Amino acid sequence: MTMKVKELSEEMLCRQQEYIQAVAELNQGKNPTAFVDTYGCQQNEADSEIIRGILQEMGYTQVSDENDADLIVINSCAVREHAEQRVLGNVGQLIHVKRKRDCVIAVCGCMVQQPAMAEKIKKSYRHVNLVFGVHALPRFPELLHRTLTTGKRVFDIEQSDGAIAEGLPVLRKDTTKAWVSIMYGCNNFCTYCIVPYVRGRERSRDPQKIVDEVTRLVEAGCRDVTLLGQNVNSYGNDLDADIDFSGLLELINAIPGDFRIRFMTSHPKDATPRLFDTMAKCEKVANHIHLPFQSGSDRILGLMNRRYDSTKYRELVAYARSKMPDISVTSDVIVGFPGETDEDFEGTMQLVRDIGFDGLFVFIYSKRSGTPAAEMEDPIPRSEKVARFQRLFDLQDEITAKKSEGLLGAEVEVLVEAVQEEQDGYNLLARCESNRPVYVKGEKSLVGTFTKAKISDSSKWGMYGELV
Ligand code: SAH
Ligand code: SF4
Predict the structure, then answer these.
(1) Which of 232, 303, 342, 391 has the fewest Cβ atoms surrounding its Cβ within 10 A?
(2) 111 alpha carbon to ligand 1 midpoint, in Å?
(3) Residues ≥6 apart with Cβ < 8 Å to 105
(4) In ligand 2, which atom is closest to the CA atom of 187?
């Protein structure tokens, strides 16, 4: 099977390994500390685990307070203006940290992949020592080495369609749960979205490398694996091999061990009956799909360049439920897209009522410069958008509360994930298949095991259960 995976060369990766050693030598006897702060999505969380992995090999100890750090890395997000403002606000604050302690400050990720943002940091945030974009991440060792040895400010936001770096070190936060990237980038160019501009084109990892990684994780005690991609349903399209996402799910499902497989995100335009048939067939694949619909108005879906309509969306969910009656369906939706009328918005409200989502992330449209939607007329006042947001949010709250009530007394399988601060005796955080938190009482040794809980109560934040 030929593969044509767009991987970075071994020679390049070896060179980075040498830089890791070189920084480790600089750090010898210093016991340096590092703080890595992550904004945005799971892909960014996964990238930060690589950054921590690299830093660990360089001899840095991770700390959870920026005031204690010799090196601060801010992994930024660009998906909405609010995220960027938070990043910029916090990067600005770091000047006070730096006055108290001589530290090196790095900013990376999607926000600084945009040339205008990198420029802004260069000019107005002069306490930042290192800026590197998404495509420069595999060269982080070299860039940090240059920053430390020259004392000069280093900027690298190479623009690229992207490649895949295999074999980078990873320091995972959790042993029970893990993110595994199966592909990077996005080809969809939804008109509101900045992701394709900063993360490059779709590129899939070699299936065997994914299977090997998951196998190692499960052997090391991982019980919940989330496969990551901007649109996992197009996995394999760029590979010169006969594999698609359903095929990959089957390969991973066949890995021995007791674990759950999750994935995100699925684009409705590429979700197929075959995907749901495969989910139903594969016992390790969780009964849950995150399937963002973005709008219930076909006119707006067209303007968004989503390439499906609300009828197709309804049909997909109906098919999924016919195969897996208790599948949990969660979604993302944007309110206030340029030109969204009352009628368009009512379409979204109606879709939410009709589907009855198990969870919904509601976002107010945020203008991203460089995207087509940023050029569209947007006459709706902010106050109206906020009002729509609130109505949709309240509607979903009602639906979620009803769904939780419906589960009272039911026995659900949960994976105990962590010990938490005790509240009314509930000392463990567990999750059911739909990924909702279930708080339970029990021995700490249950962490990392599957068990059954009888749901006894629920709140906005999750459910409470008694172990059976
Ligand atoms: N690749 C994923 C989502 C990536 S961004 C997908 O296609 O589903 C995560 C969510 O942020 C999106 O689903 C969308 O609802 C929201 N989002 C993206 N760009 C946005 C913008 N400009 N304004 C508001 N919300 C946005
Ligand atoms: Fe953005 Fe659309 Fe790609 Fe998701 S599929 S990352 S929303 S462009």
Answers:
(1) 342
(2) 15
(3) 71, 72, 74, 91, 94, 98, 127, 128, 129, 130
(4) 3
Query: How far is Cα of residue 352 from the mean position of the Cα atoms in its chain?
Result: 23
- On whether the 10-156 domain is CATH 3.40.50.12160, my answer is yes
Question: pLDDT tens digits, residue range 329-354?
Answer: 999 999 999 999 999 999 999 999 99
Q: Which pTM value belongs to this model?
A: 0.96
d(CA 292, ligand 2 centre) in Å = 10
Residue whose CB lies within 8 A of the most ligand 1 atoms, among 316, 332, 340, for a mutation test: 332
CA of 366, closest atom in ligand 1: 23
Q: Quick check: CB of 71 below 6 Å from ligand 1?
A: no
Distance 408 CA to ligand 1 centre (A): 33
Q: Which fold has domain 174-286?
A: Transcription Regulator spoIIAA (3.30.750)
* pLDDT single digits (tens) 89-130: 999 999 999 999 999 999 999 999 999 999 999 999 999 999
Cβ(301)–Cβ(262) under 8 Å? no
Can you give the length of the chain in residues?
468
Domain at 411-467: CATH architecture? Beta Barrel (2.40)
Q: Whose CA is nearest to atom 19 of ligand 1?
A: 193
CA of residue 419 to ligand 1 center, whole Å: 32
Q: 100 vs 7, 68, 103, 125, CA distance in Å? A: 42, 10, 9, 17
